[in-house]
Structure formats: C-alpha cells, structure tokens
UniProtKB/TrEMBL annotation:
Protein name (database record): MarR family transcriptional regulator
Naturally occurring in which organism (per UniProt): Drancourtella massiliensis
Pfam families in alphabetical order: MarR
Domain HTH marR-type: 8-107
Length: 107
C-alpha cells in the first residue's frame, strides 16, 4: 500500500479557523435580518426562557441595565418583543417575544 504525505495542521489553528468561519457566517445571517449580536442573543434567550424580567436578561447577556434598556427599546420599536409591567411591582418590566420575534428565531 502506498504511503501518502499528509500535511499536519495544528489542532488549535484548525479550531481557530473553524470558529472564525462560523462567526463570519453568523454575522452575515444577523446582517441579513438587521440584528446586532446582543439583540440576537436577547431574542434567543427569550425563546428558551419565555418571559423574563429585564434585569435577568441583562445578567444573562452580561450587560449593564442602561445597555439592556437601549437594546430592548430597539427590539420593541421593531415589534420583536413585548414589554409589560408586573401587576404587583411596577418597577419590574417583563419581556416576552412577540409573534414577529418568534418568527425571527424560527427562521
């Protein structure tokens, strides 16, 4: 049987190339639907968790409350989320996906 010469690629380099290609693909998909990474992350979290308080979304995304407020305002303006006040504590804002937001996640 004939031996073949195989060029070995270091595993860390190969993993880095795969990660870069996947990141590029994801960024292109988000660009196609006009979403920023934080916005897409928020929609994904809501699709898995259902209904969450605004502060919990901020924790899960690792951002500060003022940043999540701006992000949610943009998603709400696009009709991708629904914000509602807690019946017992008006300081708490509950966030859920709208039907349009669910459409973004499912496609």
């Amino acid at each position: 049987m004939e031996e073949r010469s195989v060029r070995e690629i270091p595993v860390p380099l190969l993993l880095n190339q795969i990660l870069h290609a996947q990141t590029y693909r994801i960024m292109q998909c988000m660009k196609d639907v006009d979403l920023k990474p934080g916005q897409a992350g928020c929609l994904f979290i809501l699709s898995k968790e259902g209904k969450l308080p605004q502060k919990d979304i901020a924790k899960k995304l690792g951002v500060k409350p003022p940043s999540i407020t701006a992000l949610l305002k943009k998603l709400e303006a696009r009709g991708l989320i629904i914000r509602s006040q807690d019946d017992q504590d008006q300081r708490v804002s509950w966030i859920t996906l709208s039907e349009e937001g669910k459409h973004y996640i499912n496609n």
